[in-house]
Design goal:
Blueprint: H1 2-10, H2 20-53, H3 58-72, H4 76-87, H5 95-121, H6 124-132, H7 137-167, H8 179-190, H9 194-225
Helix pairs in contact: 1-2, 2-3, 2-5, 2-7, 2-8, 3-5, 4-5, 5-7, 6-7, 7-9, 8-9
Membrane topology: Multi-pass membrane protein
GO molecular function, one term: transmembrane transporter activity
Main location: membrane
């Protein structure tokens, strides 16, 4: 087993002198970059889409509902491939940027539904009271409803982040070298399955466990501040 680990991770695995552990670390960097920026993009899209879906104006609700329906009704890997090879084919967009856009669009639809559920969980009297004080619908959502909804949706947002982190494993479909693709490259060069695959699985497990722990501590602090 030690020989397999050394051969897969700590010795050159090709004529180019590539060392497995460096490939894994570079793949991990790509995974974290895509996840982080896609989550930011998804959060912005999610809030915007939620406000559009809850707007009294049909011309705002219709495109928002269409966006959520299309994204939730198709696999993320299909969205990624279509975006990179068709939508962005005429533009000089690198694979990481394309992945961020694809996963950001995907995450935005799910975050929108999470936020909408959190807003609907807030007592309707809050909206009525704020409007009676003269606040506009938009100001009420921003200053009164959303701050209360955040506490309700935090666990679900954490789950969405974890799902997004794991979904980035399909970046290899457009040729990007993320964590999972790095493991596949090592496996194809060394013909050793166990070490690269278990290494990737362990890293994903550590990442998700660490984030879950941080989220749990943050939730505890929020409860203490109530």
């Amino acid at each position: 087993m030690i020989d397999a680990i050394n051969a897969s991770l700590f010795t050159p695995i090709g004529e180019d002198g590539l060392i497995g552990i460096y490939l894994i670390l570079n793949g991990l960097k790509v995974t974290l970059i895509v996840t982080f920026f896609a989550m930011i993009m998804g959060s912005i899209l999610g809030v915007t889409t939620t406000l559009m879906k809850m707007s009294p104006n049909w011309y705002l609700r219709w495109p928002a509902n269409l966006y959520v329906s299309v994204i939730r009704g198709t696999p993320v890997v299909v969205q990624l491939v279509i975006l990179y090879f068709i939508v962005l084919a005429a533009f000089d967009v690198d694979k990481i940027t394309a992945a961020i856009i694809a996963f950001g669009l995907n995450s935005g639809a799910y975050i929108s539904e999470i936020i909408r559920a959190g807003i609907q969980a807030v007592d309707k009297g809050q909206m009525e009271a704020a409007r009676s004080l003269g606040l506009s619908h938009g100001a009420t959502m921003k200053e009164v409803i959303l701050p209360q909804a955040i506490k309700n949706i935090l666990p679900s947002l954490g789950n969405e982040f974890i799902v997004l982190l794991k979904e980035t494993a399909v970046i290899g479909f457009i040729g990007g070298v993320d964590l999972m693709r790095a493991g596949e490259i090592i496996r194809s060069r060394t013909f050793e399955d166990s070490v690269p695959l278990f290494t990737c699985a362990l890293i994903y497990l550590l990442l998700t466990y660490s984030f879950t722990l941080l989220l749990s501590k943050f939730e505890t602090r929020l409860k203490q501040s109530d």
